Amino acid sequence: MINLRMNRTNYKLVLPALLLLLITVTTNAQQLKVTDSLENKINLYAIKNQSPTLFIHFDKTIYSNNENVWFTAYLFNADYKRYKTLSLALVKDDNRAVVMEDKFVISNGLSFGNTFVPDSVGPGNYSFIATTNLLVNGKPDVIFTQPVTIKTEDKQNYTASLNPLDTSVTAEKQKVILLVNFVNPNPKEIPASVPAWYYIGNPSHPVLKDSVKTANGQYVFNIPSKLLSQGNNRLHVQLKYKKEVKEISIALPVASRPAVVRFYPEGGYLVNNTQSTIGWEVKNAAGNPIGVSAILFQNEKVIDTITTTSYGLGKFTLTPQAGSSYYVKLYGVNKKDTLYQLSQALMQGPALSLPTALVNDTLVVNLRDEQHEKLYLIGHNYKQLFFTTPVNMTTTTKRIKFILKAVPRGLTQLTLTDSTGRPFAERVFFAHYDQRTTLAITTDMDEYATRKKVTVKVRLDDRADSGFVSVACVQENRVEFKKKNDIESYFYLKHDLEDMPVRESYLSNSEADKQFLENVLLIKGWRKYTWVDMLKSEPADTMRKFEELIFKGDVTQSPSGRIIPYGIIQYGPLKVPVSIVNLVRPLNPVITDNTGIFTLTDNDVRTESDKKVTLLIINTQANQYLIHVSDPYISLNKGLSNQLLAADYSTSGQESTRYMLIADNEHAIQLKEVKINDKSDDSFFGNSGVTANACGDYVCRYNILNCKNHRNEGDNHPPVVGAMYLINGKNDIYMGCTTLKSDNVLKFKGIYQAVEFYPADYSQVNPSQPDYVSTIFWKHQLKVSSTKDAEFSFYTSDITGRYKIVVQGVTGTDVTYGEKTFNVVKAK
């Protein structure tokens, strides 16, 4: 992997070429003193706050229970030797419960993996939380979160819905009825009541919660209106009958409250008699952006009409006058609505403005200052200092052009200070915006029939020689607009800017995208790092204590098999060491200390996907032992889940459980017993109902051992010792497996190695049963170049509709992202 931001050039005090229109810059001892001081502070601050960037490409954002999850993880700007393990936990957004967790090998900053959503995971909003094996000062060094939706494809025994009865804002209590209906019910089996749990508002701090029971299939909620407010007005209900869990929610109306309006003068503040561009943002009381029109007042006089987009962002210009008061009033509200006051302008001071914040090779900066003083323009990213330029304000205005040859692509902070380094104004710009590394993705056709071959070609543009990308081809409706993520916008924007508005694209050359990003950089360009904090940095702040998570274990024994009352065997510490065979590495036994304590390295616990680490005590004494291993990632994931701040992804339609169902023609049918007649039938093998051996090994219809795409399929069969199967991407002989049952044996989940995705090949096996697969192609690592097409192929499944090919990854100097869609129709 490449340190994209740090290793392109040695940026240690590199001064860019400067083209000055109205001033001449001279370098003197004072400038060097300021530069050296700032460089030292930035270096200290960078060490204090340094952390890698982690991005994970998941194949989609909507999964069903009993479905595979494919991903590729990219780690940037890291000491890759330290990072060995990727931890991935699936957390339920509302109660923050960890419902699934796995670990995967990291090698050279890359991790490839596959996990599985078990059928025990109910439908709802979830988040994957990823981190690594490394803690710095007791905390995870890097965290990545990807929101996803889990739906169900299980046969439904009952449905549930929430319906408003009386939800008037003026009502003392709002009434909502919960209805439960059983599908094809047997009158003798319909329960008299179904238990339900509910809460209102934020799951971590609900305004109301309780448990209730339906009667005759219904329950009426009476919710005090005084408890409801914007952002705390959604009723969430969970039902459980036998093992079938349902979740539904409904938004309740609340009395209108004033919008939240914030103003962001360019550079940081207004200055009297100086024209300023002012970004402004409008959200409702729940924190959702809203598009509005408003009137700008000077004292009581209307001077302008201003607007925000649907993203709640806008901008306007203003030249404040001394003694005047400026405020905004929104259209379409009553006279009692809040007036939103702009901050008081400074009487004097330097002001900074940019004609555009999306620049290519040249940055233009406008300065205005009524005083004659010496200023400094400083370009940096709170990690590196790119340039320090003195500006003698001998005139009221100055216009300066910078050639950004030494500045890397991406967000850069421009800070205006006085001669001692105290800040006056700051502004974010995006350098080399036009130097985007693009991918050309082509398919041999735009439309295909079901079970037809698709051939895809991918080529980089000339900005990069080569790179490695991950590729997914999935149903388009399995990638949610609100939860979509891509490596380019995350690396260049979302990782540094907080609370980014949801948008289909961010970094294209369309005028709409450019205007949107101009507003974002003006309004959201207030970084998570600050100049004041940077100036306070001291050498002591750079102390970083590294700690690697490791598996620790202990062995206890019952020397005589002694049993204490109530039939419990009493175990105690060892007196002499024992040897433990790790079947993952049988030639390297683990030796405990005298008390039975031992540790396992990451290599000790690396296993094939879904296979457990097996430890066996080989001591010859006839003692009874107990082995215990502590997985450090369990407590780590629990702590991270408690800190999860999940967005509210509730949408219209979630008032009924039907919203969380996968359509019948889009999910796999689990097969029962099948018989073999010919190659085009259900499988190569007859099936007596047994699909795996005692170790859990199975062979799918394509002769693949432990194929992830056909897990739990009815036509799987146990492997035969000595037979040839496709194992880990190559044909190999199955050598059998070992099962151990002993009190001296322990099995636990380890760190999984990468597995291959095997797409269907209907030219080899064409089963008669429907094959509903939403991810029809996945490739962890595909090499691409600018001189030759990378070509691959796969087959469509039996699901019709739009499909999306997503390609993203890294080149030697950049990240890259591309999409392509095609249509699948029913075969005639």
Provide the fold topology:
Elements: E1 18-20, H1 29-49, E2 53-58, E3 62-64, E4 67-76, E5 85-92, E6 98-105, E7 110-117, E8 124-132, E9 134-136, E10 139-140, E11 144-151, E12 158-166, E13 173-182, E14 195-201, E15 206-213, E16 218-224, E17 234-241, E18 244-251, E19 260-265, E20 276-283, E21 293-298, E22 301-307, E23 313-318, E24 326-330, E25 340-341, E26 351-353, E27 362-368, E28 374-380, E29 385-392, E30 397-403, E31 410-417, E32 423-431, E33 439-443, E34 447-449, E35 453-460, E36 466-475, H2 487-494, H3 511-523, H4 531-535, E37 546-548, E38 551-558, E39 563-564, E40 568-569, E41 572-573, E42 579-582, E43 590-591, E44 597-600, E45 606-607, E46 612-617, E47 624-630, H5 632-642, E48 724-727, E49 730-733, E50 745-749, E51 751-752, E52 775-785, E53 790-795, E54 801-811, E55 815-825
Parallel strand pairs: 3-11, 34-55, 45-51
Antiparallel strand pairs: 1-30, 2-4, 4-7, 5-6, 5-8, 8-11, 9-10, 9-37, 12-13, 13-16, 14-15, 14-17, 17-18, 19-20, 20-23, 21-22, 21-24, 24-25, 26-27, 27-30, 28-29, 28-31, 31-32, 33-35, 35-53, 36-52, 36-54, 38-41, 38-44, 38-47, 39-40, 42-43, 42-46, 46-50, 48-49, 54-55
